[in-house]
User: Fold these one by one.
Assistant:
Number 1:
Amino acid sequence: MPIALKHVRNLIPLWILALLAALLVASTAPAHADSATSISVDGSKGGRTFDGIGAISGGGGNSRLLTDYPAAQRNQILDYLFKPGYGAGLQLLKLEIGGDANSTDGSEPSIEHSKGSVNCDAGYEFWLAKQAQKRNPDIGLYGLAWSAPGWIKGGFWSTDTIHYLITWLGCAKQHGLDIKYLGGWNERGHDADWYVQLRSALNDAGYSKIKIVADDSGWDVADDMAKDKAFNDAVSIIGAHYPCQGDGGPATSCSSTKTAQDNGKPLWASENGSQDMNTGAPALIRSITRGYVDAKMTSYFNWPLIAAIYPNLPYSTVGLATAGSPWSGHYGIGENTWATAQVTQFAKPGWKFIDAGSGHLGGSESNGSYVTLKSPDGKDYSTVLETTTATAAQTANFTVGGGLSRGTVHVWATDVNHPDPATDFVHTQDITPSSNGTYALTMKPGYIYTVTTTTGQGKGTATAPAAHPLSLPYKDDFDRDAAGTEARYVSDMQGSFEVQKCTAGRRGMCLQQMAPVKPIEWQDDSDAFTLVGDPSWTNYSMHSDVELAKPGTVELIGRAGKQNRPQSHQQGYYFRISDTGAWTIFKSDADGKHTVLTRSATAPLGTGRWHRLGLSFSGSRITASVDGKSIGVVDDSSYSAGQGGLGLTSYDTDQFDNLSFTKVRAARPTAALAVTPSAKSVRRGKTLTVTTTVSVPKRAKAAEGVNISLDAPGFTFDAQPQVFGSIRPGGSASASWQLTAPTDKASTATISATATFAQGGVAQWLRQDAQVAVTNPPPPSGVNDVSDLDFVASTNGWGPVERDESVGGTNAGDGGPLTINGTVYPKGLGTNSVSDVTVYLGGNCSKFTSTVGNDDDAGSSGSMTFSVLGDGRTLAATKTIKGGDPAQQLTADLTGVGTLDLVVGDAGDGNAYDHGDWAAPTLTCSG
C-alpha cells in the first residue's frame, strides 16, 4: 500500500519528507517481479481513434481450401473468425485483388484474365467477404493487389491498373460488398502521381468514400506525403508492413516515424504477423498493444487470416487458424484467435484510446504493456494488458474517473505463452471498484488480461472432426462445376486454372489455364501449375486428358511434396511432354534444382487434339504413359509421397479433363542395378575397383541397348560409359572401373551408377548408390626419411617423383644419384618442377628439415623455388635457386599440421632442367 503522508506533514522535518518520497519512488520502480503499476482510466483524457483489428486473405491463396470444406465445418471456421462474441470477431478484412500470379502460397485469379472479359465470380475472395459481412455487417473491407493481369500496359503504376481496380470494385458492388479501403501495390513502394490519379478516378467513378491506404510497404511514404500536398490529400491512411521488428519479428517493440505521427492521418500496421497460429500469439498481442504505446498505430492486420492451404506449402501453420484437410473437415483454431479476441470482443472501431491509460507495465517493456480504450459515449472502457515478457506476477492498480463507469468490471484472460484450450479466453473474475473508482488486478506472467465494463463476450464451442487422408480412387471430370469457378481441391500456384466449357470437339466442362500472357508478378516466375490431392499419397497412378491449344509443353506432377519460395522450388517428379512428342521425366527438389532422370520422344501430340497422359508411382518405380502406352520408366527413391499437379511451361490456354488418381501396388522389378566397390574404404590417393551389374529376372523382358555410367565426385577415373547390346532374361552384364581416391581430405564418398536401357520398347532408368570411406593413412612416428613414407599423392613436371635418386626420364627408377654441388645424398626425393609431394602427418610431427637445390645433372641450367606447406599454409620457402647455386637448408615447424606438401615451383620461367632435389628430407614425429 502507498505510504500516507497527509497527516504527518506538519509533524516531521521537510528533509524526512523528502527522504520518504524518494523511498516511495524507489519502491514502485519497475524491474521487480512484484512491481505495481498505477493505471489512470480517465474518461476526460483522449488519444487516437481505434480503427479495428483485421486479417488478410491473400498474399496469396491462403484461404483457397476453405471453400471446399463440408458446409458444417466451413461455417464453424467462419464463425470463429468473424462472428462477434464467438472467436476472433475480426473487424477488418483485407482481400487480395487477384492477378493470376503467385503471391506466397498460391496465385489468386484475376477477374479479367484478358482485357474486356470480366468474370466477377472468379476466385473466392468475394465469397469470403460476403461470409464475413453476413456474420458482422459492420466489418470494414480493404482491397489490395499483389499482382495484376499481363494485358495491362505500362506496368503496375499505370492507368490500365487503375481501370482494373475500378472494375474489381464494380464486381464487389455487384456482390453487395461495400469496399471501405483500397491500397496500391503490396510491398512495392509507391508512385505519388499514380495515387493522385487513383483518387481522382475513384471520385469520378462514384467511389469518393473509399479511403486510400499508402503504401503497404514502409513509413518512408510519409516523408513523400509531407513534400507533396496532392499526394498527401489523396491518401487517407498511412499503412506500413511489419513495423514491430520485421517480418515474423518478436514485436518486443514497435516503431513508426515522427513524420508519420505528425501527419495526423491514422497509422496502421497494415500487415504484420507471419507467425505460427499458436506460438505467434505473444508477438501478436504485443504488436497491438505496443504498436499503439510505441508507435501510435491504431489498426493491426494479421497475415494471413487462415492457412487454408496444403500442409506442404510455405507458412502452412500461420494465421488465426489452419484448414488444410477439406476432405476430412479437420481444422485447428489457434492461440492467435484468442489473442485477437482479447481486443476485438471488448472495443469496436470508433472507440478512443486513452493515452494516459496506456503504457508499459512498471514503466518497462520487459514487464509488459497495456492500452485503454473508451466508448464513443464516454461511458464504457476496456483495458488490455499483456505480460508476455514478464517473469513473475505483478499488480495493476486502477483509478477510474472522468465520467467513465465505475460499475463492475469483468476480467477475461488467456495464457498465450502456454496455449491450452482450458486457459484460452476465460472469464476469470468480476471486480467491483471502490466508491472512489479504484481496484487492483494481480497478473501472472505470459498472459493477456482484459478488464472491461462491457458484456456480450463469448467463446465458441464447435469442435473439428479428426483428420484422415483423402481416400483413393479420386476422380474429377469437372462437369459438376460452373464455368469460371475453381475445381474442388485444385490449388493454383501460378497462372489461373478455372472450369470452362471443353474445346476441341469435347462436350462438358474441363479445367483450363486462363492467363494468356505472363502476369505482372509479385515474386518470381515459374511454370503455370496447380496442385491437387493429398500430400500423404504414396503409390498411385495419376491420369488426365490433355489438349494443347497451341504448340507448347504440358506436364503432370506427382509426389509433389515440400515447396519453398518462390513456387518454382516445388519438390516432386515431373512428366513433361511437348506437342512434338519430345518428353522428359525429371525430379525437382525444394530448392528448385532439376535433375533429368530420362528423356526421349514419342509420336507428336499436336494441337487441338485430346490425349491421355499418365504418371504412376510404385515404390521407386516411376512410369510415364501416353494414350495408355508406357513410354518411360525410371527408378528413383528420392521422394516417397506427395500430391499431384497439372501444369504447362508457357501461358497458354491448354485444357485438362477426367483427372484421376488410383492406388497401385508395388511393382515387381523388371531389372536391377548393383554397385559393388572392392572395399568399403580406400586411403587417400589410392586405387579402388568398382563393379556395376545390371541383371534381368527370368520372367522379365530382355534389356536392350544397356548403357552403364558411373559418377564418383572427387575420384579420378575414365568416366566413359560402358555399353552392352542386350541382356537376356535371367542374365546380367557387369562393368568395372578403376578409381583413384581423392587426395585432399578424408571423407565419406557417394559413388553412383546409372543404367539406361529399353524393355519392350519402353525406356528404363535405374540408379544405385554406394558409400565408400576415403581414409587417411597411419601418421608417421619417430624420425623418418620422407622418401620411405607412403605418399597420399605426388605430381611431377617430368616423369614420376623419384625416391632416393634424381629425376631421370619418364619411367620410375631411371634417375642418377642425388647430387648437389658435388655432394651425394643417399636419401631424398628427385623432382622436376612443377611438383608436389603430399604426405599425411595427422598432427603427429613437430619438425621438417631438408637440404634443397638443383641436381648437378642439370649443370648451370634451370631455376626453381622450394616451399613447405602445412594444411595449405606456407611454413618455409626459398627464393629462386639456379643450377650451380649452393645447397640451402629448409626447416619448418609442423606442430598441429595434418597434411604436408613439398612443392617445387618453376620460378616463372618454365620447367626445363628444373631438377629440384629434396636431399635428406627428414620428419621428426612423436611415438
Number 2:
Amino acid sequence: MHGLDHPFRTASARLIGRDKDLEFIRSHFSGSVHGAALLLSGEAGIGKTVLLDAVAAQARSEGTRVLRSSGVQFEADVSYAGLNQLLVPLFESFDLLEPSHRDALKVAVGIGSGPPPNRLLTSTAALLLLRRIAQDTPLLIVVDDLPWLDRPTTSVLGFVARRLVGSRISFLAASRVTSDSFFESSGLTEYRLQPLDEASSAQLLAEAHPDMSHTIRRRIAAEAHGNPLALLELPTALDREQRTAPTAVPSVLPLSERLQALFAARVADLPDASRELLLIAALEGIGDLAVIEAAAGRRAAVDLLESAERDRLVTISAASRRLSFRHPLIGFAVVAQASTADRRRAHRALAAVLTDQPERRAHHLGEATTGPDETVAELLEQAARLRLGRGDALGAMAALTRAAGLSPSSADESRRLAEAAYIGTDAGGGMADASSLLVGARRADPATREESLHAAAASALLLINEEGDVNTAHRLLVGAIEAGGHGYAASDDALVEALFTLITLCWYSGDPEKWAPLFRALDRMTPAPPDLLWVCAQTFADPARTGYRALELLDTLLDDIGDATQVVRVSTCAVYPDRLADVREASLRLVEQGRAGTAPVRRHLSALIHLCLDDYYKGRWDEAVKLAAEGLSLCEDYGYPFFACKFQFVQALVAGARGDAVTSNALSEEIVGWAVPRGAHGARALAFHARCLAALGSGDFDGAFRHATAMNPLTPLAPYLPHAMTGALDLVEAAVRSGRSADAATHTAALRESAMARLSPRLHMHVLACEALTTSDGDALGLFEQALSLLDVDDWPFDVARVRLFYGERLRRRRVTKKAREQLVQAARTFEKLGAAPWAARATAELHASGRATSATVQGKGALTAQEFEIATLAATGLTNKQIGERLFLSHRTIGTHLYQIYPKLGINSRAALRDALAALGLEDAG
C-alpha cells in the first residue's frame, strides 16, 4: 500500500523484539498491488495496540491518511459506535455519496434520521465513501480490540475488508485470540503475534526498569511469559524493597489475576477524585472528555488525572478532548475494583449528563437502577425502539432484556422478554438460545397461561425459526389464543395477527389436525373474520376443497393492495389459486424496497418467494433461480432457516426439470434435513414434490411414484396439504409410466371428487390431463383437447408442454401421425426454450418415432433410424433396457442389440456418452 512500502525504521526503533513482525506487515501490504487486509491476533497485553500505533505512525509519515476505531467494552451493545469512531473525520465528506447511501450512513452513525438501513446498505455506503476518499489520498484503516466492537460495526468492517481489491485502502485490525468476536475473519490473512523471546524480554525489562535487580528481572520475565504489557506493568506494583530483594517479592498469581490485581492497586493509590473520574471514564466508554467532566461535576480531567497519565494508566489529548486507557484491562480493572455503589453513582451521573442522547441515557439509568422501576424500564423500552429504528436489533434486545429485569409487573417482564426474542429473529439479529428467552418469558409470569397475543405470535415464529419445533410453537400460540381475553372480536388486531401466524405454523406442520383450532377461532369471531384472514384460511389451508369459495373475494383484494404486510398476505392467498401474476408488480416493488433497506427483511423474503414461484410457473426459470439465490443469501445473512426451504424448493424444481437430478436431490435432502427433525411435514412435502419431478425427468418412474405417494395418498387427495394438489399430475404420470394404471385411475378419481379444477384453469387442465391419461384412447383425445383449450402456452409453458407431450404420445400410438407431430413439435420447442432437457429429449424421440426426422448423422458416423433414435434417447434419460422395452413393446435383448449398433454410429463406446452425442443432433426445424 502507498505509505507502507518502506521499512519501519522509526517504528522499529521504539519497539523491542518486533522487527520481524513489522517486516511481515510491511511486506503484506507492499506485496498487494491494490488493497489488502490483515488481522493481528494475540493474547491480551501481547503488544497489538503498540504495533498498530507504529504502523499508523509510519503510514502518516509517508502521506497515508489513517482512520482509527477501537472497541469499547461498555458500549458493545450500542450499535455502530465503532463505525461512528472510524468515520468521525469523514462526516463532512458524506455528501460525496448519492442520497440513499449518504442517508443510510448518517442514520447508522447517529447523525441523521430516517428509515432504518439494513446492514448491506450501510456496509456498501461505508465502502463507497472510503473508496471515494482513497481516490485522493491512500487510506489505512486501523481497528483495535475487535471483540469489544458492537456487532453492526464488525459486520460493516468485515464487508469492507473483503472488498479492498482495486482500491488504495489497507485494513489492519487487532483481536485477542481468547476473545469471541462478531467479526467474521474467514478469508482474511491472520497474523498471530507471538510473545517476546527471552532475549527481548530481558532487554525490555532492562530498559524500562533499570533500577530493578537482575534476579527480580528474571523472575518477572518468567511470570510474564513474554507478554510485553506484563513485563512493563508488573514491576510497578513492587515497592523499593521488592524491586531489589527477591525474598520480599510476594508469591505470584496466574498472569491474568496478577494483572487485574495490579491495575486495581495502581488505581487505588490515586486520589479519590481521580479514581472517581477514571470510573466515569471507564463507564462512559467513548472517551469524550466533555461528557466525562460534566458527569464529574465539571472538574477538569486534565488536572485530576495528571498522576494517572504519568503512571501510564491513561492518555489525554487536550486538542481532541479525548481520553483513552493505555490498555482496556486498565479500564476493566477500574470498574472491577470499584464498589457497586460507586458504579451506580457513576452511571447516574452519566445519565444526568446525557439528556440529549436517550439511548445512552437509558443504558446508564438501567445500570444504575437496582430494583423494579417502571419509569426506567419504559425508557429502556423506548431506547430499544430507537435502536431498532436504526437497524440495531441486538441493541434493542439488550435494552428490552434489561427493561424486563426492571419491570415491576411480571406481565411486563414476560412481554419484554418475548419481544426481545422476536426482534432478534424478525430483524435478523439472531439469538444464541431463543428457547431460553421463551422459557424466561413464561417463568416471569406464572400466573398467566401464556404471553400477550402479540408476544405469543412473535415467540412462536422465533421458535420455529431458531429451533424449528413446529409442534411446540403451535401449542404455544393456540394456548395463548384460546386463553386470551379478546372475546374473539374481529376488531382485535392482536388476535388477527396471531391467527395469521397460526396459518403459517399449520402450513409448516402438514398435519390436518393442526388446522382445527384455527377454524374454531374463525367460527367464533364476531361479527365475522376480516376478509383477508378468511380468504387466506380458505386458499392456503385446504385449497383443493375450499379455495374456490374465496376466489371472488380474492379478486376484490387483488384490486386494492395496501402496505407491505398486505402485499405479502394477499400474495400468500394467491399462491395456490395461481394468481401470483396479479401481485407481481407489488411484489417487485417490495423486493426493491427490501434491497434498499426500507422494508422489513421478512417481508422482503416473502415477496421474493412469491416472485420465484411466479417465475417458475411462467417459465422464467433463470430469473427464478437467481431470485432464489438472493433469498437464500438473505436467509443466511439474517438468520431465517425456516424460510430457506422454500427457495431451495424452487431451485430443486428447476434443476430437476432441466435434468440435473444430482443437484435437485441434494437440495431436497437439505429441505428434509431441516424439516423432519422439527416436525415440519408441510415443508417436507416440498422435497417430495421436487424429488418426484427430478425422477420423472431422469426416467425413474418407479422412484417418482414412491416420492409422489410419500406426500399424497392415492385417495382421497391429501387434505390440508396444498402441495398434494400441485403434485397430482406428477403422481398420475409416474403411475402410468411405471405400469400402475389402476393406481393412476384411483388418484384421478380422487382429483375429480375434489374442487381442485374450480381453483384455476391450470389446475383444471391438470385434472383433465390426468383423466385423459387414465382413459381409453377414443375418449382421451377429447379430454386432451379440452385441457389444452384452457390455457395459453405463454402463461404456463412447462405445464402446457407436458400435456402436449402426453397428447402427442397418445396420438402417435393411435397413428394420428400428422396431429401427433404438431403437438410434439410445439412441446419440444417449449422444452428446449426452458432448458428442460429430459422432456425435450422425450419429445424429440417421439417425433423421430413418428417419422418426423427419419435419419440424422453425427460427425459423419452414419444414420440412426427413427426407432434407433428413440431407443438412444430413452437410454440417455437413464432408463434400463427392460424399461425401454416396456415402453416400446420390445424385449430387453432387442434393445441391447439396437444399442450395440447405435454406439458406433454416434462415435461413442458407452451408454454414459449417449446424452452428449444426442445433444449434437439438435431438434430439426419443424418448418
